[in-house]
Design a protein that fits this description.
Elements: H1 7-18, E1 23-29, E2 42-49, H2 52-55, H3 59-67, E3 71-77, E4 80-88, H4 89-95, H5 106-109, E5 113-118, H6 121-131, H7 134-142, H8 155-166, H9 177-183, H10 186-204, H11 218-246, H12 250-262, H13 270-274, H14 276-290
Parallel strand pairs: 2-4
Antiparallel strand pairs: 1-2, 1-5, 3-4
């Protein structure tokens, strides 16, 4: 998480933190981590705050963030564009663990991220501890779904895990996306697999033949994934509705993201911008039918 990033990313992170009292840290994540140029791209950040009440100057934004986290906002700084999501430190820790009712946070932070702005050592420790829950959560739910995994550090654990998490949300990415995420940095995922499996073994012990035990039975894990899929699809729709109030130009961002990841052009009509919730609802069935989102 301390690997250096371009100075422009650090500057944008500092500018995001400056907008919100009680900011603890800013995390940079997503596909832009692998890019050399940010031209035409939207950078992705998470802002971790101590308190929603202190982070916003309008009470209804704090209530919205508390009721249906996170709030997401567009941001521009020095010629770059971004979006950032806001979570409290408590919600961030909870949503990175197996008790989370959706995959949206731990699935992302099982992947690479960078801590690009932080308030101090205590905040660093809290954020690192929260992120350290993400990959073990992924593995504990994925291992029971695999048969004959062979080498415990096999990349198939990651690939299957990301296949399951991508299927637990409404996503625009192509079907090969979960595998390409792992293939972009195999050394990282190989090293993390060993660390994650060692952490699980410390938590749950080891089997009689030295194998890492499954915290979940196959049946229980399958049931959990089914619930995560249901929750994830519904949450995507709820967040879309909320974004019409908190995210300026949200429906245009949705169209841009779907076009970029699916390769299919999405056109937004003027009336859909005036009535973004209704516009998104009418757009969704066509996108699903065309396979632009799954």
């Amino acid at each position: 998480m301390a690997v250096p990033v371009p100075a422009a990313v650090n500057a944008m992170a500092a500018a995001i933190a400056a907008r919100h009292p009680s900011a603890l840290g800013v995390l940079f994540y997503g596909s832009c981590l692998r890019e050399q140029s940010f031209d035409g791209l939207m950078l992705d950040f998470y802002l971790i705050v101590e308190s929603y009440g202190r982070a916003f100057d309008r009470a209804w934004l704090a209530r919205a963030n508390r009721l249906l986290p996170p709030n997401v906002f567009p941001f521009e700084h020095e010629g770059l564009i971004a979006k950032y999501a806001v979570l409290s430190a408590d919600d961030f820790a909870r949503l990175n663990g197996p008790e989370a009712e959706t995959v949206s946070v731990w699935a992302r932070f099982a992947q690479p991220s960078r801590l690009v702005w932080v308030a101090g050592d205590i905040a660093t420790a809290a954020i690192v501890d929260a992120i350290a829950r993400a990959a073990p959560t992924l593995f504990e739910l994925t291992l029971p779904m695999l048969t004959g995994t062979g080498d415990v550090a096999d990349m198939d654990i990651w690939r299957e895990g990301f296949r399951l998490t991508y299927g637990a949300e409404l996503r625009a990415e192509r079907a090969n996306r979960p595998g390409s995420v792992v293939d972009a940095d195999p050394a990282r995922y190989h090293a993390f697999a060993r660390a994650v499996l060692a952490a699980i073994a410390r938590e749950h012990g080891v089997g009689p033949n030295g194998e890492v035990p499954n915290a979940w039975s196959p049946a229980a894990a399958a049931g959990r994934w089914a619930k995560l899929r249901r929750n994830g699809k519904l949450l995507t729709l709820a967040r879309l509705a909320k974004a019409s109030a908190t995210y300026a130009g949200g429906i245009d961002y949705l169209a841009w993201k779907i076009s970029r990841h699916s390769g299919q052009k999405v056109t937004i009509r003027p009336w859909q911008r005036r009535w973004p919730i209704l516009g998104a609802i009418t757009l969704l069935p066509r996108l699903i039918a065309k396979g632009a989102i799954r």
